[in-house]
Amino acid sequence: MSFQVFGIAVSRGVAIGRAVLVASSRVDVAHYFVAPDQIEAEIARLLRGRDAVVLELETLKEELPDDAPHELAALLDVHLMLLHDDALTGSASQWIVDRHYNAEWALSAQLEVLARQFDEMEDDYLRERKADLEQVVERVLGALTHEEGGGAAPVTARDFGGEDPLLLVAADISPADMIQFKRSVFRGFITDIGGKTSHTAIVARSMDIPAVVGTREASRLIRQDDWVIIDGDAGTVIVNPSPIVLEEYRFRQRQSELERARLARLRHTPAVTLDGEHVELHANIEMPADAEAAVSAGATGVGLFRSEFLFMNRDGELPSEEEQFIAYKAAVQAMKGMPVTIRTVDIGADKPLDRLSVSELRHEHVLNPAMGLRAIRWSLAEPSMFRQQLRAIYRASAFGKVRLLIPMVAHLSEVRQIIETIRKVQQQLTDAGHAYTRVELGVMIEIPAAAVMLPLLLRHVDFVSIGTNDLIQYTLAIDRADEAVAHLYDPWHPAVLQLISQSIAQARAAGKGVSVCGEMAGDPDFTELLLAMGLRSFSMHPSQIPAVKQRVLRSDAHRLAAALPRVLDSEEPFAAAEKELAAARGGALH
Description:
Blueprint: E1 3-6, E2 8-11, E3 14-22, H1 39-62, H2 70-84, H3 89-99, H4 103-119, H5 124-127, H6 130-145, E4 166-170, H7 175-181, E5 186-191, H8 199-206, E6 211-213, H9 218-221, E7 227-231, E8 236-239, H10 243-264, E9 280-285, H11 290-296, E10 302-306, H12 321-334, E11 340-343, H13 358-362, H14 376-381, H15 383-396, E12 402-406, H16 412-432, E13 440-445, H17 448-452, H18 454-458, E14 463-466, H19 468-476, H20 494-509, E15 513-516, H21 527-532, E16 537-540, H22 545-553, H23 557-568, H24 573-580
């Protein structure tokens, strides 16, 4: 039966494929693919996990006291029966064979299939056996997690040999899983929760694949292997579409591919407005390997290297100074003399470290992590770790132009403490004989307090970078990952636009560099507005550069600036921008 699910469009385009459900569980489950030559070993690992639980339950049954209620033994018998049922481990093994899932993922996928079958049973007693099934699966997952030696090595990409394209469906996708999936086979994402700037949305855009979030019910309504269409433009998910609808969307896919090819021809065209204003289009990257894509897309530098991704998926072990240095050096060398802006670790909120980290253990139950010990607050609370990261960044500066960016600054005392720490690090490097060059210091403007006190901050730094995602979140008091309030997340809100415009104007007046590295920078709908505000440095995912460059090439910056006051003074800035900035559009495509 065909039906539609509606959510929030966060990454444009159309994706068509079969649904792959990542089932929610009270046990954290690793999701990765295994190589073809590891399939038999992974199935054996699954069966060892099952057998360990069988042995545990049989032992418990044997040790039951004589006066124990009969129901306890009967319950254990039910669990043992489920464990031996081929519908569980046999079918889970088939997921490993067919999809190359790791054992935990395969077991979770089969749990999802069986749980739905239990939900549809008319008999109350049988329907309630779903809880027994969940308990059994969680025991096996626990046994797999604690198995000495772990499982097969993850494979983040593989050749499906002509199989149907796959779309990922989940209640939510953790940042750790998103890293694992980033270079995998998925052509699109669908999640129950999230907003336009949730981590899942940002990574989906960075992968340049369609995504719809905040659907609320998708992971419950969509079944494993359903045919699904993701309309990333309208925020619509179509499940089991009719042949006519399927063909229509396949036509749209082909049109989108032609448009991408046309924009790709702008790769080596300088970003210059019709009236001669040069614009820097930098790239946001998460790993050193991403620098290659930045160069290929025509980026003029890296405006944001999110260093926190070097700290994640490590079972609580922090990267060493040498490991970080090698990563930063690789990115710097890949950019071939173009500037690389490295942001110090921005851990917290929707990007927590593994639970074994010191700060995560200490602040595990914080009610509002977005306003807690995160970003520079976390770095200053862990001075040894912070100095280690700074040493690695400064050592990388010997191999190219490096700039240092500090996230979530709100106090001058923080800036002074950072500068003092940098002096100590420089002395340590000098004493150790490590080469380094001057590194420009910048701070992110993502807290309203920083935007309001920007003239004071500018006395101590070389540049600022406006992080619009958090600036909007904190200005409007909205959790950007919470779909319940996602509709209130508004980049066009007058207060947000005033803060961004004032920040750009104040930085330019002080002769300091200013860029925007949030999602607004990579959204062509905001290109003309930011140009009107005087912005000449944008930073975005490499895949977004061609579309933004096209807008730059078609804009007259001076005419846009003349129209800006009418937009900022309007009660409805979006409507005003559509009207007032339209006059400054035009011109032939370079």
